[in-house]
Amino acid sequence: MRQDPPHPLPRNTPDSAAAPETVAPEPGETAGQRNRRLAHIGVAHAQRVLTGRYRLASQQEAFELLRQTSQRFNIKLHTLADAVLHTAAPDTDAELWFPSRARYTPPPLPNLAVDESSRTNHGVVLRNAMRRVLHITETTMGNVQLSEQGMLRMEKHTGLNQEFTDFFAFVRDSTTSCAQSAEQRQQITVKDVAVADVFDDESRHAILQAGSRAAHSVPLVGRKDRVVGIISSHHEQPLSDFTRAQLAALEALGTQVGRWLLWHRHTIVLDALEQLHAAATAQGVEGGDGVDNVQDVQPD
User: Fold this and answer.
1) Which residues, other chains included, contact 133 with Cβ-Cβ below 8 Å and sequence gap of 6+?
2) Cα dist. 102→7, 11, 13, 145 in Å?
3) Are 272 and 72 spatial neighbours (Cβ–Cβ below 8 Å)?
4) Would you say 78 and 147 are in contact if contact means Cβ atoms under 8 Å apart?
5) pLDDT in tens, the chain (300 residues)
6) How far apart are CA 295 and CA 19, in angstroms?
7) Are 212 and 236 a contacting pair, CB within 8 Å?
8) What are the two backbone dihedrals, phi and then psi, of residue 163, each rounded to the nearest 5 degrees?
9) 237 contacts 215 by C-beta, under 8 angstroms
10) CA 13/CA 277 separation, integer angstroms
11) Contact call for residues 5 and 259 (beta carbons, < 8 A)
12) What is the chain's Cα-based Rg?
């Protein structure tokens, strides 16, 4: 396997193509209901794309293909759906989706205590990365958000209550430190949530009620300064400045994990897409006529 850094995924549509129109709850909608709605949008769109592209008998058949493939490759269903939507479609009647793709070994992750058997495990790497950030920042509360569908989506968390995790399950507006960290591609420290200008009133309340008075966000940065996620620590008391050694350790970790996440997207996720293509092609052989051009299948 090659060790060179992977090239970017071939893009089929802009990131906004499958993004929900709104992240805020609709009138009369709870945060939990909003989260279920937003979680469903990308998967439903991917079902329609696959049904048309492979002439499948139904969207339920497409959903089963997505579900089975996500389980086989141990990746989230919404991650696989997002890849379907944002990766250039395979050539018509192509046996392979990525016929000339080179494979790469995962980049090293020093100081994350990831054993050899878990080097490709998305959940293990993110959990250990969050633990490392919390160790450096000396706290027990934190969360990981990944960039998906033009938003930051909550992926892992610890020490934070459900009101917090429901409220920040999807973040797009810049009224949070995590969103600003992603936009600015740099670490951001909020020394006192109660008086910081970065938050709107609803975001401030959601953080304070969880017992967090301060926060620090670390961008996960891949090649060409591409931010693929954020790890944030939360603190019970207002913060003073972190030391240079702490900030340097966090920056190094953000770069290592960002590069690993891009490797995962260009290796494990593409493996899953290749398997999905093979299974859908075989399953759609006896199907009826459908839309064969992904561009013709529009999101709601």
Assistant:
1) 142, 218, 231, 233, 250, 253
2) 10, 17, 23, 28
3) yes
4) no
5) 443 444 444 444 333 333 444 465 567 777 777 788 877 888 999 999 999 999 999 999 999 999 999 999 999 999 999 999 999 999 988 999 999 898 889 999 988 989 988 999 999 999 999 999 999 999 999 999 999 877 899 999 999 999 999 999 988 777 788 999 999 999 999 999 999 998 989 899 999 999 999 999 999 998 878 899 999 999 999 999 999 999 999 999 999 999 999 999 999 999 999 999 999 999 876 544 444 333 333 333
6) 16
7) yes
8) -60, -40
9) no
10) 19
11) yes
12) 20
User: In angstroms, rounded to a whole number, what is the distance separating the alpha carbons of residues 98 and 88?
Assistant: 10
Query: Which strands, in side-by-side order, build the sheet including 170-171?
Result: 170-171, 151-158, 141-148, 227-235, 214-221, 188-190
One-letter amino acid of 48: R
CA dihedral 33, 150, 259, 203 (to 10 degrees): -60
CA distance linking residue 277 with residue 65, whole number of Å: 9
- Report d(CA 41, CA 287) in Å as an integer: 25
Q: Cα separation of 186 and 184, whole Å?
A: 5
> What Å distances lie between residue 186 and 181, 221, 248, 275, CA to CA?
5, 9, 12, 37
Within 13 Å of residue 30, how many CA atoms lie on the same side as its CB?
A: 6
- Report which of 68, 66, 91, 71 is spatially closest to residue 81, judged by C-alpha positions: 66
